[in-house]
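Quick one: structure tokens for this chain, please?
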Amino acid sequence: MILAAATMVLAVAACKKDEDSTTLPSLGGTVRFSLDPFIGINEEVKMTASGASNPDGAEITYSWEVNPAVNEDEDESGEGSATGTEFSLNFGERLRTYTVTCSASASGYYGISTSRSTTVVKSGLDGEGSITGIDISGLESITGEDGMTYFYRQIGPLDWFIQNLADKEPVSPDTEEYGIPYANVEVMSGIFGRYYNYNEAVKACPEGWRLPTETEWEEYLETAGSQAGDAADQEDDFQSGDLMADAYFNGEKMWEFWPKVDITDETGFSAIPAGYFSAGDFHGIYERAVFWVTPDAGEEPEDQAPVKCLYMDNPEIQTFLTDKGSFRASVRCVREH
């Protein structure tokens, strides 16, 4: 009798284990919603979920989670949540990255989910924006057609922008906008500047300003390098690090550390590694800075123009020719002082 009772208990336990281990079917499809990788401060974003399917045709419930919580009154490590096909959220003023997860669920099915991240950004070099580490004290400024404030400094006979041009305004009603923003998100124009092809770059500077020539760039480097060298008792011994700003993007160091490159920004040029655009995508972010210059008179190839390039791991400033129409780089404007 004891043996029979024990056998019955084991049988019941085995049966319950089989029931607990039953695998539920998963919902079909893929959860989809759109969220730009960058958004401006206090921007309210509306997200709409779709894509999940229920084999039974029954109702699907969508739920949303945001981590970390946007509301400063909530625990910073916690998650905000909401339910519904549509979800609107104002991400506030904190310059940080948020992850939004949308999950689909239905009775009797395993749920499915998708996560996307977005980073809150703010333009300006006053120490309150996304880009910090650039000294603008004592500098003069102008307001561009785009409404942005551009700071500049004098080097030799020219005034030079110390930040990348972001203007997109066409010069006439029958022309298209100039340049494209990083990640094709408009708010990034005021952070990294816009990326122009050469044909746009020669027209994009504000009135009274223009693209520097290759010779002017080299004269600028010689002058700035000489000034920095005099201060360091090593005349004319300048390198790419003398043009690089020890800049941060939302608190993250932009130029990655390499022993061969000593970032001093002694020239005040304040280059940031905004990279470039080529072959349908953005490249070199946090690795290099690339700037258009106009070729010297009589040396302009029909379909190519020169760019100046600063690399995070190379102290030499490089020049190369690239396609005028398909390659996109940053622009620094100059004018006679």
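The chain has four helices and 21 strands.
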